[in-house]
Write a structure and sequence with these properties.
Rossmann fold; eight-stranded mixed beta sheet; six-stranded parallel beta sheet; 14 helices
């Protein structure tokens, strides 16, 4: 049985590896993080996700292995991080390039190298092909390049891996069809085979579309705040139109997709991305907007001590422990810039202290604060509304069921 070597065992690589193993394929997961590999080898999932423990056990029963080494194989899936350079906003391909070179050190002739990491349009042509060719490999003979961007969200990963449509970018239809068959082992939805550049662009476009829609809702919130209008009531009414579907505003955009991918387009096409850049600026400005609302409430109630403010939620979205690009972390960074130290923080899903003044017990957290800022609408808070009724509440997620809370 051939081995599938999955490189990068984070939020995308690990579930993908587990799905393939559950399907009966021989899978080896590789990551350079020794601590992570040891944890996985002990049978412990590194993050919380609905259905992950059961999937993990099924994969273990089918013989999945975890290691820090790249394995000799004919099929590799690369799912390493793809950050962007803060100054230029361009993709930083260093992790992908490193993984590709490590694959080339061990791969069999004719291997397929599938990049799942989100990359900007043209990344394969600019970085991956030259790297492979510089090593003396003939693309299309010695090795085949493909791009199969993920399309899942934390909190619903397992379901979406099975039920979301997939895209596979390939240089030729025969290899594309072969990898289509691989993903069909677990993906029950349509799988589209196209060229690599179209696959690269489609993933970035999907997340940019969502970023722009969120920015419109956030801009509406700022407009309504300026003139004392209820943005949620206005959106509810507008959405009764059969062709209108405005999203809800919030304290910012986090995660590794929506908050990052649009910058790839801005970095590569700076003269052509006016709308995209504006949307990014609006969404990145929301933590500052929340800070302004906190300041308003403190002044209104003559509260001068910032340590009486508590931020509920460190994750970037509801009911997960994923803190990547979290609006709360963005807000804390802005407060640090203004030397505003001492604000309290709590998140029921984040079990280890990752910031200063972070509480691990909800009641202890509430005992220390007067102003509660809802940054994430976890179900935990929705079921404990009775505990926060005596607090001044800034509800950035519009989930409070009692009268008198402040909104964006």
């Amino acid at each position: 049985m051939r081995v599938i070597n999955v490189i990068g065992l984070g939020y995308i690589g690990l579930p993908t590896a587990l799905m393939l193993a559950k399907s009966g394929l021989k899978v080896v997961g590789t990551d350079l993080n020794i601590k992570l590999v040891n944890t996985l080898s002990e049978g412990k999932p590194p993050f919380e996700e609905e259905g992950l423990e059961q999937l993990f056990q099924e994969a273990l029963d089918n013989g999945i292995e975890f290691t820090t080494e790249y394995k000799k194989s004919d099929t590799y899936i690369i799912a390493v991080p793809t950050p962007y350079l803060k100054d230029s906003k361009k993709l930083d391909p260093k992790y992908v390039i490193s993984a590709v070179n490590s694959v080339l050190d061990v791969c069999e002739k004719g291997s397929s190298l599938i990049i799942e990491s989100t990359i900007s349009p043209g990344t394969t042509d600019r970085y991956i092909r030259p790297e492979i060719e510089s090593r003396g490999f003939v693309i299309g003979e010695d090795i085949h390049i493909l791009h199969a961007p993920e399309r899942i969200i934390p909190g619903n990963m397992i379901y979406e891996l099975e039920h979301n449509s997939r895209t596979i970018g390939a240089d030729n239809s025969e290899i594309g069809g072969k990898i289509n068959g691989l993903y069909s082992k677990f993906c029950k939805a349509e799988i589209v085979v196209t060229d690599i550049r179209s696959a690269e662009m489609s993933k970035v476009v999907e997340n940019t579309y969502r970023d722009i829609n969120i920015a419109f809702a956030n801009e509406l919130a700022k407009i309504c705040r300026t003139d004392n209008m209820d943005v949620y009531e206005i959106i509810k009414i507008a959405n009764k139109h059969p062709r209108v579907n405005i999203l809800q505003p919030g304290p910012g955009v986090g995660g590794h997709c929506i908050s990052v991918d649009p910058w790839f387009l801005v970095g590569d096409y700076p003269d052509l991305t006016n709308l995209i850049l504006t949307a990014r600026k609006i969404n990145d400005s929301m933590p500052r907007h929340v800070l302004g609302r906190i300041r308003d409430i403190m002044r209104e109630h003559n509260i001068r001590d910032i340590s009486k403010v508590g931020l509920y939620g460190l994750a970037y979205k509801e009911n997960v422990d994923d803190t990547r690009e979290s609006p709360t972390l963005q807000l804390l960074n802005r407060m640090d810039e203004h030397l505003a130290f001492g604000v309290k923080v709590f998140d029921p899903f984040v079990k280890e202290r990752i910031v200063n003044d972070q509480f691990l017990n909800f009641n202890d957290f509430l005992d220390e604060i007067q102003i509660l800022v809802v940054m994430v609408g976890h179900d935990h808070l929705k079921s404990n509304m009775d505990l926060i009724k005596d607090k001044l509440v800034l509800d950035t997620k519009n989930i409070c069921t009692f009268h008198g809370s402040y909104t964006l």
